[in-house]
Amino acid sequence: xxxxxxxxxxxxxxxxxAREIRTLRKLQRGRLIFADIHxxxxxxxxxxxxxxxxRRLHLxxxxxxWITGLAANVRAWSHTPFGFLFRPLLWPGIFPxxxxxxxxxxxxxxxxxxxxxxxxxxxxx
Length: 125
Fold this sequence. Notes:
Elements: E1 6-10, H1 15-27, E2 32-36, H2 50-55, E3 58-60, E4 66-68, H3 69-77, H4 83-86, H5 95-123
Parallel strand pairs: 1-2
Antiparallel strand pairs: 1-3, 3-4
């Protein structure tokens, strides 16, 4: 049977993201590949846009399925001995609220780090 590797796409220029990735690298059991979004070739047709990748955490499963946001985070942590601690976030009574919290945080992070730069670049034209 072939090994099954998931690929986690992360923002290597985000200090908080980089810290979590360092922890995941140490704890994971060898089945998670880490891909810094900023090191991916632009125009790679099988990847979502760079903005989409930066807005939400993306994980591509070993079957080629894309998982985003909170579900991607839970899947990434499932590659560690602590994955069981994250699974309740996917429960039907918890997931909608936890997902909204994650999305609000992710939008604020993106806007603070990237959106202002793109707005100001558009204003100078």
